[in-house]
Amino acid sequence: MDQSILFKPLKMGDVELPNRICMAALTRQRCESKDLVPTDMIIEYYGLRAEAGFILTECVPISQRSLAFPGEPGIFTKEQVEGWKKVVDKVHSKGGRIYAQVWHAGRASLSTLQDGLEIWGPSPIKIRGIHRRGLTEHEVPHEMTIEEIQEVIQQFRQAAENCKEAGFDGVELHGAHGYIIDQFLRDSSNQRKDEYGGSVENRSKLCLQVIDEFISVFGRGRVGIKISPVGRLNDQCDSDPLKLYTYLVKELEKKKIAFIEVKDDNDPANLFDFGYPSSKEQIPDLFDVFRPLFSGILLANNQYTPTTAIEGIEKGKFDAVTFGRLFISNPDLVERVRNGYELNTNWDVDTFYTKGIKGYLDYPLYSQQQQK
């Protein structure tokens, strides 16, 4: 198998990627104070991974109400913007490229994480089960008014402007995993009767309006989106995802955005006892559907290895892969793949969302391993 295809440069909109080993957005919750400003530890973490084709940051909240987890670095205050500038400068100083993944948690948050603010969502339907970090049960969200939807759209725009001020190379809209954009898209969570609910056109409206705001700030060549059409995280399912996402991807193609990152979920039937069909029962192969519809860059995400990445790229299914856990335990993942070095797959799940250096900055580079 020819791994050189992973190192074939790729034009992604306005940005040239030197390789196709990209870093997925990874929630790590390492902010140490309530101001949610990136710390020196976070700066070092991203700097170590600058050789990636490009880096997607952990999801950055656009407001206090948009938080889902404690310790997420935000992008809605001046101090946070200044903190991200230091991260971006570190990555750029090493020749890297870094995009901010911008999000709002919607009904997937908790009022305790939002200083007591009311939880918002498209409809008053709560997520079944326990919050992802095991904190407590989810709350029934307030059904957003049209005015509140417009407020959130403007917060997304301001977040994009803040990202541009911080020096990011571009932005990705988090439209996956059951957060606010995904909540409006899929009919398990969106049962509105107005212009933002019902038809696939209406349910796609918020997503496309936010994309338009991002384009107006960064230009279409530096904007992308992540989608998870058949994922069940946060109690999400659509009754006809093929129809919904065919429409959405066609509209994104019209806007000529730079990339779509596709979460290639393979969830079994009745995951979490939600009663939903399996992912593959709904759409057996996402890339067979989306590749003919979208002329921009398609990024594959979800438990890919360098080998499966090569296979998919060679078959023309997608253009590059965003790796998650492999970048956690291999800060020098690109160098290891290039040289055929052994990959460290002993990531410590227990430290994914904790505080401190352990499981964050203590994974050795290959060169350091050889010195021991």
Automatic annotation (TrEMBL):
Give the CC-aspect GO terms. Answer: cytosol
Q: Which intervals hold domain NADH:flavin oxidoreductase/NADH oxidase N-terminal?
A: 6-344
Matching entries from InterPro entries are given as: OxRdtase_FMN_N, Oye-like
**Mind listing the UniProt keywords for this protein, alphabetically?**
Oxidoreductase
What this protein needs as a cofactor is: FMN
Which GO MF terms does the UniProt record name? FMN binding; oxidoreductase activity, acting on the CH-CH group of donors, NAD or NADP as acceptor
Q: Which family does it belong to?
A: Belongs to the NADH:flavin oxidoreductase/NADH oxidase family.
Q: Spell out the protein name for this chain.
A: NADH:flavin oxidoreductase/NADH oxidase N-terminal domain-containing protein
Q: Which organism is it from?
A: Paramecium primaurelia
Give the organism's phylogenetic lineage.
Eukaryota, Sar, Alveolata, Ciliophora, Intramacronucleata
